[in-house]
Amino acid sequence: MNDHHLEPFGESRMSALIEEAIFEDLGMGDVTTDAVVPPDAVGRGEFLVKEPGIIAGIGVAGMVFQCLDPDIHFHPSVEDGARVAKGTIIAQVYGPLQGILKAERTALNFLQRMSGIATLTRTYVNAVSGTNAKITDTRKTAPGLRILDKYAVRMGGGVNHRFGLDDMVLIKDNHIVAAGSIAKAVDACRRYLGTRGFDRAIEVETKNLAEVDEALACTGLSRIMLDNFAVPDMRVAVGKIAHRVEVEASGGITLETVRPVAETGVDFISVGALTHSVKALDISLELTHA
User: Which long-range contacts (CB under 8 A, 24 or more apart) does 22-26 make?
Assistant: First the structure.
């Protein structure tokens, strides 16, 4: 799928996102820090990982501090995608203490969420190791944070599905109902793309083996999604498709079921839980000098 949306550190998009997050937290000012910490105080702190995981968002955290106060120095000791053990110091920060404390929660919110996504993704990727299946995400992301959620999936070893509705054609069940059939929906999409000169992949969602047969009778498809198929039916569907198009498995796939799904021979396994049900990785900022 298109990768042009997924540059995580594009200045304009990232600056706007971070500024909004800081404003959301800071409001008119941090009354506690302003009351307790002298304006000229400087401090130093360490980002401590409290459980094993995969780091993502270390650069974003640094950008938060720079955005709030350019005099704050942020020094990461690991890169995104690194596997870390409990107790690892992944970054140090030094500079005006008021700024450090005001940026702390926003930086951690980004870092913890993104690292949680990367960690869960890596767990799924490891679960299908040795098969041809790739773990991919969905659009079930936190509103406004999709660029970071999907970047974190990549840092965990997954691949990105479409970023947004403009990236590709994905004909789902409601589209099929609206069009009248899979064939009619695919034909409508092909004509639409052709008249506008758009180059987009076309994927169609199927619910059963009869719909797989209907999809295979269509021309111009890039991928068939097997949605909520039982594993035996999925294996039959993969045999029917026989590498003519890519195959994606989707629908309620868990860590307990992902290996059998991968072993059917599908190319992609989409997992909404990577981003919509993520558990933040436990990371804290500990002041070592103030």
Answer: 22/64, 22/67, 22/68, 22/102, 22/103, 22/106, 25/105, 25/106, 26/68, 26/102
Which of 100, 108, 104, 106 minimizes the C-alpha distance to 37?
100
Convert the pLDDT of each residue in 206-230 to its tens digit: 999 999 999 999 999 999 999 999 9
Alpha carbons 253 and 120: distance in angstroms, whole number: 13
Q: Domain containing 255: what range?
A: 130-276
Beta-carbon contacts of residue 212 (< 8 Å; ≥ 6 apart): 206, 224, 226, 237, 240, 241
* pTM of the full structure: 0.93
Give yes or no: residues 109 and 183 share one domain: no
143: phi then psi, degrees, rounded to nearest 5: -55, 130
In this structure, is residue 101 part of a structural domain? yes
Q: How many domains, the chain?
A: 2
Closest alpha carbon to 230 in 201, 211, 209: 209
Residue 247 tokens read as: 């195959």
Closest CA to 218 of 231, 203, 208: 203
Which residues are annotated as catalytic? 105, 140, 172, 205, 227
Pairing of strands 223-227, 246-250: parallel
Residue with tokens 């111009």, as numbered in its chain:
220
